[in-house]
Amino acid sequence: MARPLAERPAGQYLRATPDAATAPAEITVVVPTYNERANIDELVDRIRAGLAGLRWEIVIVDDNSPDGTGHYARKLHARDSRVRVIRRIGRRGLSSACIEGMLASSATYVAVIDADLQHDPALLRDMLEILRGGSAELVCASRYIAGGSIGDWAEDRAAASSLATWAARTMTAVELSDPMSGYFAVRRDVVDHIAPALSGVGFKILLDLVLAAGSGLRVAEIPLSFETRVHGDSKLSPRVIWDYVMMLAEHRSGGAVHANRLSTFVMAAAGLLTNLFALWLLHDLYGLGSAVAETIAAIAGCAAVYAANEMLAYGRRGAWRWYLGLLPFLASCAAGIVCNVLLASALAANGIDWLLAACSGAVLGMVWNNGAVGRHGWSVQR
């Protein structure tokens, strides 16, 4: 007769040993995607071949790609349950996508690889072997050690990469030849430990990890020959450069200055300086009346904020989209412009120096305009 449930040894029904098909993954390969549908099939096939015989899974983190990358990747799950998809709505960015994918893993190790087929998935096995050996907690695929290369990059891009790499290496507490690499593997418990200190800003998740981990992180490198992108477009843009600088600034300050707040401050300062320069030009140099000069200057300041946010939030949009968005944005700023002019005029009429009066009005206008940025759905950080 079967014993009552309360009398059975604890865990009796938790001892089933999974077969190879359902065994938990030893390594999770995180693939952040945005408009990479044409590359997904080949990438999954190459990862499957590179990790043949091992326990693995792929987590595709898609930022709601307009080309349907996430929807298409879900179909792969029906053919291979080791392919999972996280679809993100209302948030974008490679670093934050990688963090979300890594934290969704229960594997012992996690790897990050780009979806553009410029990273060779065959290296995943070598990375895993090094991590298993215990000599390193993070393994980076480097373009700048013997056997590695940057491929067929143009001279200007190669120079920009070298400059960014130099800047990153001056800040890292561990010796890495390629802290800008987007291809690496790491122990998941390391990610769990340092996750609260990650900025999640921009595209350089490896650099974010290394800066957050500090000097105690044990690292290794293997050579990577960068391959040529066949499908899709490069994500390099002014936004990428801006995010990189903001992330370095956040880590340099020890987290005291958040990248989002710093970006907001810089955008507001750009608008304020444009406003004051235009006012000086129109009022002092060309002799326009205060009210007229202040109105035009305030509009110029708003346009500067709009232009900066358009460039950083959207990158290379068509010119017609830029102009179509400008007028609605200025309309959103109308109340701020009116408050700017009224305050500056009132202060000047009461004997306040025109520059101080103009600054007071411009600051009030910028506070309103910062709200206009939010109303238009911009997010300088992705």
Low-confidence stretches: 1-20, 377-382
Strand order of the largest sheet: 3-2-1-4-6-5-7
- Structural class from helices and strands? alpha/beta
Number of strands: 7
- Proportion of residues in helical segments: 40-55%
Distance between the termini: 62 Å
> How many whole angstroms does the radius of gyration measure?
26 Å
The overall average pLDDT, rounded, is 77
Outline: elongated
Q: Main β-sheet: number of strands, strand sense, barrel status? A: 7 strands, mixed
The ordered H/E elements are EHEHEHEHEHEHHEHHHHHH
Q: How would you characterize the overall build of this protein?
A:
This protein is of the alpha/beta class. Strands 3-2-1-4-6-5-7 form a seven-stranded mixed β-sheet, with helices on both faces. α1 packs parallel to α2, α8 crosses α9 and α10 packs across α11. The longest helix has 27 residues. It is elongated, with a radius of gyration of 26 Å.
How would you sum up this structure in a few lines?
This protein has 13 helices and seven strands. It is of the alpha/beta class and 382 residues long. It has a seven-stranded mixed beta sheet, sandwiched between helices.
